[in-house]
Amino acid sequence: MKHVALTLALGAALAAACATATVQLPPTDRLANVPVPDRELAESLLDAEQVVAGRLVQVAEAEQYERPGELVFGIAGAKAPAARAFQGELSVDSTLVGPAARTLHITFFAARGAKVPRQDSTALWVLHRRTLWRLKECAERQAITSTGCIADQGLALDSDSDVRPLADWPHLKALIATLGLDARRR
Q1: Torsions phi, psi for 132 (to 5 deg)
Q2: Full-prediction pTM beyond 0.85?
Q3: Three-state DSSP state, 40
Q4: CA-to-CA distance for 155 and 105, rounded, in angstroms?
Q5: What is the per-residue pLDDT across 103-161, written as a single tens digit (0 to 9) for each?
Q6: Measured distance CA(67)–CA(65) in Å, rounded
Q7: Of the candidates 153, 152, 76, 67, the residue with the CA atom closest to the CA atom of residue 112
Q8: Are residues 99 and 53 in contact, defined by beta-carbon separation less than 8 angstroms?
């Protein structure tokens, strides 16, 4: 009786392993199919939660995600201006990757003085699921107590290249198909 149960369990485990082994190639194998000049964009697409075409209908500073103070100290004491955080609302026209939605809320960061996407900007948006630390609240709490930092989960832009012109639609669509991400469209 033990052998029958063990055989059934092994058979189920083997079937499950075979089923998952044929689902998708590892990301590095999929990148091999992409031309070298498109690899950085392809890596960003592999990491994307959603890729949409839409219009930024609202933009506001999100001070809760900003590090307090004007300067941040880096390697060898170099000073850099603290990044400003922004939240925006996207009105989605079309979805290439991820679940279809009419409206998405996004977060992005920009160094002081850097170009920030303006309200009514229409573009392709490559959005990543990220942990968004409430740095302002963190700093205030740590001045009083040693409690941990609070964080939110949200869609964010990782860099300027995550905002692309609408004319890139066919190129992104082809890359998404090459990477096998079109199956992630829900």
Answers
A1: -110, 105
A2: no
A3: helix
A4: 7
A5: 999 999 988 778 888 999 999 999 999 999 888 888 776 655 556 788 899 999 998 89
A6: 7
A7: 67
A8: no
The C-alpha R_g of the chain, in whole angstroms, comes to 21
Nearest CA to 44 out of 27, 29, 32 is that of: 27
> Which residue(s) pair with 51 in the sheet?
97, 126
CATH topology of domain 26-184: OB fold (Dihydrolipoamide Acetyltransferase, E2P) (2.40.50)
State how far the Cα of 65 lies from the Cα of 96, in Å rounded to an integer. 28
Query: Can you give the residue ranges of every domain in the chain?
Result: 26-184
Angle between helices 169-179 and 39-47 (to 10 degrees): 70
List the structure tokens of 68.
Answer: 């307090």
Structure-token match 């850099």, residue found: 80
Residues across the chain: 186
